[in-house]
Specification:
This protein is mainly α and 343 residues long. It has 13 helices and 2 strands; from the N terminus they run αββαααααααααααα.
């Protein structure tokens, strides 16, 4: 079995290197620094980096999880390509991307009648007995989630490492609860994310909007299926695994609204960026892209501690809620500290 995984890893590494090579050679799908994206120079050594995520992860997911319902695979593929059009600067309107996201995701939940978000709150669960409300609530949740993943992709390793950690915890959850999902496929997915993460650490390739949308939706959907089919798993454990990108997105919307900033334009006031500016002010003498990567890894290590405790009590909603609230409080305290000390 070890030789099998080594062979698979070799093929995946070769595949990723080929993608990066041809993208650079033909000047295709490169994340080139623009006037509106000056912060991206902090993530890399070069001015242009391959946005390899869509072409790397989409085939891997389609091959490994071909047995998913065709409507799910079409939705995932559509989100990958929607993000790819953004990466290629074909679809630059953020509002238009939201409209397409809403269409793809709501259509999926219209077709999959049995999927709903269990909140363990009777009032909210009763609302989802109404078809239109079920579709709207599920669509809203996934739109917040995938745009949150895209938002935290502003620091090396932050989004990619979070994908890896979530995949590992899905594996642990499946192993401990006899959940009907192939752990071998999860292993290969985790290996593929780890390989991508290694190059991302050195600013050699980025996920891009396509992979942030596509992989983010895929992991969220798998977790939703798990909690729908196994009532012993608290839905708040799933929320615990996914709260960070979702909260980062919602907090950014509220922050920009209160400061009267445009919600559709990028800014440099996210927590990971404030931490970067604070540490740079302290004259930490390492390369910017390495510092960015270390910040992404450090934030995820804090999340791992929370996830680990959550996994131990995966069936206890109260403990999950306490864990989520505790991390949100830590986030807000950290944000306040770094925001006040950025000048």
């Amino acid at each position: 079995m070890m030789q099998y995984y080594i062979f698979i890893s070799f093929l995946i590494i070769l595949y990723l290197l080929c993608i990066n090579f041809f993208f650079k050679k033909f000047n295709f799908c490169l994340d080139i620094e623009t006037e509106a994206e000056k912060h991206k120079i902090l993530l890399r050594k070069e001015n242009s980096v391959p946005l390899s995520g869509t072409f790397y992860f989409l085939p891997i997911i389609l091959i490994l999880f071909y047995n998913l319902d065709i409507s799910v695979l079409i939705c995932i593929s559509s989100l990958f390509f929607l993000g790819l059009f953004s990466d290629l600067k074909i679809l630059t309107s953020y509002k238009l991307r939201l409209i397409f996201q809403f269409f793809f995701i709501s259509l999926l939940f219209f077709l999959t009648k049995d999927l709903k978000i269990d909140t363990r709150i009777s009032f909210l669960n009763n609302l989802m007995n109404y078809e239109i409300l079920r579709i709207l609530i599920c669509t809203f949740f996934f739109m917040v989630l995938i745009n949150g993943f895209n938002l935290i992709d502003g620091t090396n390793c932050l989004c990619t490492f979070n994908f890896l950690i979530i995949t590992i915890f899905i594996y642990l959850l499946a192993e401990n609860n006899n959940i009907d999902i192939s752990t071998e496929r999860l292993n290969i997915l985790a290996i593929s994310i780890l390989i991508f993460l290694t190059l991302n650490f050195f600013g050699k390739n980025f996920l891009g909007d396509g992979a942030a949308y596509g992989v983010g939706f895929f992991l969220g959907f798998i977790l939703l299926e798990i909690t729908t089919s196994n009532i012993s798993i608290s839905p708040y454990f799933i929320a615990n695994l996914l709260w960070y990108p979702a909260f980062e997105n919602l907090f950014s919307i509220l922050r920009r609204s209160f400061s009267k900033k445009n919600n559709y334009l990028p800014d440099n006031d996210h927590l990971h960026q404030l931490v970067f500016k604070f540490l740079k002010k302290k004259k930490i003498f390492i390369k910017d892209y390495i510092l960015s990567s270390l910040i992404g890894i450090s934030i995820n290590l804090v999340l791992v501690l929370n996830y680990t405790i959550g996994l131990k009590y995966f069936n206890n909603s109260l403990i999950q809620i306490i864990l989520i609230i505790s991390l949100i409080f830590l986030y807000l305290m950290s944000y306040n500290f770094f925001y006040k000390n950025q000048d």
